[in-house]
Write a structure and sequence with these properties.
With 122 residues, the chain is an all-beta fold. It has one domain (17-62, 72-121). It contains no helices and eight strands. It has strands at residues 17-25, 30-36, 45-48, 53-59, 74-83, 88-95, 98-109, 113-121. An eight-stranded antiparallel barrel has the order 1-2-8-7-6-5-4-3. Strand 1 and strand 2 form a beta hairpin. The radius of gyration is 17 Å and the shape is globular. The termini are far apart. The relative contact order is 0.21. It comes from Flavobacterium frigidimaris. This is Lipocalin-like domain-containing protein.
Length: 122
């Protein structure tokens, strides 16, 4: 009889990596993201680095569109991020020629899912 013992270490949930938006609830201001291996061509996203740096893929224009055939142009900007002991994530980056500070309350973080609630934009 042969016994094989193996252990699998579960990956710890972390903000580090690329997150793409999946759903946003306008009423509750809760946003859900999924982990991604890269920025997607036709989608926004956020990339957190271990050193507190950040990349944000965002629309270059201020207007949204309801036309699925209308092209949306994206840019990737750099910024910084921090997280406080009370699970408040703060992002600072440029947006349309101004400096933006976003504050989110961390609601859920798993290996593949990030859920935050917008609590402030400045």
């Amino acid at each position: 009889m042969i016994f094989v013992f193996s252990s699998f270490k579960k990956r710890e949930a972390t903000l580090i990596g690329i997150w793409k938006p999946e759903y946003f609830d306008e009423k509750t201001k809760i946003a859900t993201y999924s982990q991604s291996s890269s920025f997607k061509k036709k989608s926004a996203g956020i990339q957190f680095f271990t050193d507190g740096k950040l990349k944000v893929k965002q629309s270059t224009g201020t207007c949204g569109t309801m036309d699925a055939n209308e092209k949306i142009n994206y840019e990737i900007v750099e910024g910084t991020w921090t997280i406080s002991s009370d699970s408040i994530i703060e992002l600072k980056h440029p947006l349309w020629g101004q400096n933006l500070t976003e504050k989110y309350k961390l609601k859920e973080l798993t290996e593949n899912k990030l859920v935050v609630q917008i609590i402030g934009l400045q």
